[in-house]
Design goal:
- The complex is a heterotrimer.
- Helix content of chain A is about 70%, strand content about 5%.
- By secondary structure, chain A is mainly alpha-helical.
- Among the domains of chain A are: about 305-550, no CATH class; about 555-625.
- The longest helix of chain A has about 50 residues, at about 555-600.
- By secondary structure, chain B is mainly alpha-helical.
- Chain B is elongated, with a radius of gyration of 17 Å.
- Chain C is about 70% helix and about 0% strand.
- The chains are: A mainly alpha, B mainly alpha, C mainly alpha.
- Chains in contact: A-B, A-C, B-C.
- At the A-B interface, helix 25 of A face helix 1 of B.
């Protein structure tokens, strides 16, 4: 069965080709069905492979598909690595991918670019699968770039809107900046190890000077910063909310942004060897978590709140990676995929009901009109805030515990970020679903619960969120931590946990206590005293205004990077291109014209002259043959 | 009779006749005179060909001359016909008047 | 006599005459005189052919050239009623330039052709290939096809001349 791993990316590729060429000619339901079925088929194969890998003794299987690059000493076969880590990601990608495909058939039903949407979605799944399955850095890079491309295509899906196109450009360009770092890292790996296949590289990692390993780890992390939206390359993610909501759910919550995490976990050997790189990762992760949480406190667009929340949670995951808790990070990836996808799909349902309105200050009291959506979003919000027994609690707690071992300061920053998370998520929930409806009259009439194709995925994801915590129960409760056991063969465990049981209990209780008190505080603020987001900017206090404007980071980037580049390109355009290059090209034409004007005078029309010219020509030829 | 003239005398003679013909073509405006000078050039070549054929005792040279004469005759016939047509149109045979192909 | 053989004398005289008459062809004003001088040049060249023992060609030369082609020229000249007064003249500068170019061409040709063989024409008996019988054998043997094609060529020229010479019927 493991040999059939090639089928897993093949099905979405076939779906892409069929929808790409024949999508317009098929009916909408046919097009959607083909896309969903291809992902479902991948999911089934992935499940079978997962079961086989879990049962077998040999954890790490390499399946070679074909010989790809064969040039001199550089041999790169196109092979897949099937081990517990990649199997887990396979399940997440195909499983959640399938649910989102089903959801999209309902959400995008009115849209005329229906088949184009599914073409891009299938292509995205294909590239993401390549990314996690590749056995060497090059295949991972191919998948990396491919998902960046699909992200661009999908964010700018409604391409007639100029602002959306700009957002898509921003996402792609920022990703490219990260990719440059990634590519440099790969080149450095190749130069030092002579190969880029995982097995060979990781085996020899210890024999390279630590400074080189640090350089490699940091360069790879630059790529992860771009793809997973960490400081300073995070500004594309909130703008990427311009795409349709299922896109935000799939790409910017569950899969693409976790590619950075996957890459770091895969390369954990480097980060374990280099202390400096791990520190950098942890610090950046913690800072990002805090920063994004603060910005989310005052956002009014429902999708932007979720976007900043994603950035913040990714920061927490990188914090975990930085302190060496690799399996905790993967655990959090899994649970985050569940509840973030759930939250995004729920937000999509709300937007669908509100006829396109995304501003939460115009919502309110939707509890009655959208019962299923409300219930599932409630579950998601509780999970993300870290309240037991839902999934988010266990993964977050594990991360914070491992961080505490490493550095108390980082633990403090992470806890503040979690506090912020609880606050702004419940703020969003209260403002959207409770209280009086604050929108227009026609919107109120339009309110309706979403169709089954949208609500069923919501319910499935909610169930996963509730029971997902079982994957990684803490050891000191005496239960099995399936997640870390599963990933043991892949990951070099730094050192076993040195915290005493009392400390772990204390940390857990502090976390839960903080979460619950924040929820109560939010309840007081938004339900009891009915505090609403400020209508106009002038009503906000100065500090609030700074936060509302996302700390003016976008404007800063504009001034420092974009304007100088624009100026330089203006110079190149006006001076070099127009004057010099065009001058040369036009000049060629002008010289030819001028010369030919002069040569025209030879055509006198007199036969006598022609005869003379002929004789002169003959003389010249004879003369030259003479000289020889 | 046995011919003992060195071949380069014939070459020299032929060249001089050819040059005279060429000068005539370039220096005269009367189309008929130009034609005649062209015939003179052809004849110079004929002479040289015959001389060489006698030198190498090869009949091909003389056969070639025979054909040149045939072609020259045909050419003169057609050329003079064209000349008559031109005369009919511009009432003169001055070649310098035929300059409508000017730029 | 005089240290030269008869052949050499003949060659010298014929060459001298040929060149002189050729020069007269180019330099006379009257076109009729030009034609007559050309006829004389052709006779000299026919004499050269005889010296080279190309008997057939000598006769054909006189018949075709002096007899037919020159007569044609004369007819055309008389048709157009050309004489010395109506003769157009090129400018002096053109004539000088033409002369110079001719001189340069002469120099170049002489330069290219020098170093050609110094051999005498072959000694063992007069060459026989110029006789009618021998030339005829070669012409009708090896060159039969071109011979026939030449007749087609003459037919085409005839037709062409007639077509061109026709007056348009209004």
């Amino acid at each position: 069965m493991i040999k059939l791993i090639g089928l897993v990316p093949l099905f979405p590729l076939i779906g892409f080709i069929i929808n790409g060429f024949f999508g317009k000619k098929m009916s909408k339901s046919m097009s959607g069905a083909i896309a969903c079925i291809s992902v479902l088929a991948s999911f089934i194969v992935a499940v079978l492979i997962f079961m086989e890998v879990s049962a077998s003794q040999q954890k790490s299987n390499v399946v070679e598909l074909f010989s790809w690059i064969n040039s001199g000493t550089l041999k790169i076969p196109f092979s897949f690595l099937v081990d517990p880590l990649s199997c887990l990601f396979l399940l997440i990608i195909t499983g959640i991918g399938f649910l989102i495909h089903v959801y999209s058939t309902g959400y995008m039903h009115e849209d005329e670019g229906f088949s184009r949407f599914f073409t891009y979605l299938n292509l995205f799944i294909f590239f993401m699968l390549l990314l996690v399955l590749g056995n060497n850095y090059l295949i991972m890079f191919v998948g990396w770039e491919g998902v960046g491309l699909c992200s661009y295509l999908l964010i700018g899906f409604w391409f007639k809107n100029d602002a959306y196109n700009k957002a898509a450009n921003k996402a792609f360009i920022m990703n490219r900046i990260g990719d440059l770092g990634f590519l440099l890292g790969i080149i450095l790996i190749f130069v030092n190890f002579g190969s880029i296949t995982f097995g060979e590289v990781f085996g020899k990692a210890a024999s390279i000077p630590t400074a080189t390993v640090t350089a490699i780890a940091l360069l790879l992390f630059v790529g992860a910063m771009g793809k997973s939206a960490q400081l300073p390359l995070y500004t594309w993610l909130p703008d990427a909310m311009a795409g349709p909501t299922p896109v935000s759910a799939l790409i910017h919550a569950a899969t693409m942004v976790t590619a950075g995490i996957y890459m770091v976990v895969r390369s954990n050997v480097f980060y374990s060897i280099s202390e400096t790189a791990s520190e950098v990762v942890a610090v950046i992760g913690a800072l990002t978590a805090l920063f994004a949480a603060v910005i989310a406190l005052l956002q009014t667009d429902i999708k932007k709140v979720l976007a900043y929340s994603t950035v913040s949670q990714l920061g927490l995951m990188f914090l975990a990676l930085g302190v060496g808790a690799y399996s905790s990070a993967v655990f959090h990836v899994t649970t985050h995929a569940f509840f973030k996808a759930l939250l995004f799909l729920g937000a999509g349902s709300v937007i669908h009901a509100m006829g396109g309105e995304q501003n939460i200050s115009k919502m309110g009291g939707l509890k009655k009109a959208l019962p299923v959506t409300f219930l599932t979003m409630l579950i998601g919000t509780i999970a993300i805030s870290g309240v037991p027994p839902f999934a988010g609690f266990f993964s977050k707690d594990e991360i914070l515990a491992h961080t505490y071992e490493h550095s108390q300061l980082l633990w403090f920053v992470g806890s503040i970020a979690s506090l912020g998370t609880a606050f702004y998520m419940f703020r969003m929930l209260y403002l959207t679903f409770y209280g009086k409806f604050r929108g227009t009259h026609e919107q109120e009439h339009h309110l309706h619960e979403s169709p089954k194709s949208m609500t069923i995925p919501l319910m499935v994801l909610a169930a996963l969120t509730v029971f997902g915590g079982l994957l990684g129960m803490p050891e000191f409760w005496g239960m099995k931590n399936w997640m870390s056991e599963n990933l043991d063969p892949i990951i070099i465990r730094k050192n076993p946990s040195i915290l005493s049981h009392e400390t772990e209990w204390t940390l857990m209780i502090i976390a839960v206590g903080v979460a619950i008190s924040t929820i109560y505080f939010a309840y007081q603020m938004f339900m009891k005293y009915k505090v609403l987001p400020a209508e106009k900017e002038a009503d906000m206090k100065p500090f609030q205004r700074v936060i509302f404007h996302k700390f003016y980071v976008d404007e800063f980037y504009d001034a420092i990077i974009r304007k100088p580049l624009d100026a330089i390109s203006q110079v190149f355009y006006k001076f070099f291109d127009k004057q010099i290059l065009d001058g040369i090209v036009n000049g060629m034409g002008d010289i030819t014209k001028w010369k030919s004007q002069q040569l025209r005078k030879l055509q006198t029309g007199h036969i006598g002259f022609y005869i003379m010219a002929m004789v002169v020509g003959i003389i010249t030829i004879l003369f030259f043959s003479l000289i020889k | 009779m046995i011919n003992t003239i060195p071949i380069n005398y014939y070459i020299m003679l032929s060249t001089i006749l050819f040059i005279i013909g060429a000068v005539g073509v370039m220096a005269r405006r009367n189309a008929i005179i130009v034609f005649m000078c062209i015939e003179l050039m052809l004849n110079a070549v004929n002479l040289l060909l015959v001389a060489f054929s006698t030198l190498h005792n090869d009949a091909n040279g003389q056969v070639f001359v025979f054909f040149i004469m045939a072609v020259a005759a045909a050419e003169v016939a057609v050329g003079l016909a064209i000349l008559s047509m031109i005369y009919r149109n511009i009432k003169s045979i001055d070649i310098d008047l035929l300059s409508k192909l000017k730029h | 006599m005089l240290g030269y053989t008869i052949t050499q004398w003949l060659f010298g005289i014929l060459s001298f005459l040929a060149i002189m008459f050729a020069l007269m062809v180019v330099f006379t004003r009257n076109p009729v005189n030009s034609v007559l001088y050309l006829v004389l040049t052709f006779f000299c060249i026919a004499g050269h052919y005889l010296v080279l023992n190309a008997q057939f060609l000598a006769v054909v030369h006189i018949v075709v050239y002096a007899g037919a082609i020159m007569v044609l020229f004369l007819f055309v000249i008389m048709l157009m009623n050309l004489n010395e007064d109506t003769e157009p003249q090129k400018t002096l500068i053109s004539k000088i330039i033409a002369g110079c170019i001719g001189g340069v061409l002469l120099v170049v040709l002489v330069g290219s052709l020098k170093g050609a063989e110094q051999l005498q024409l072959h000694q063992s008996g007069a060459s026989q290939i110029g006789l009618v019988k021998n030339l005829g054998k070669v012409l009708f043997g090896e060159f039969l096809f071109p011979f026939e094609i030449a007749s087609v060529l003459l037919l085409a020229a005839m037709v062409g001349a007639i077509m061109l010479g026709k007056k348009e019927i209004k």
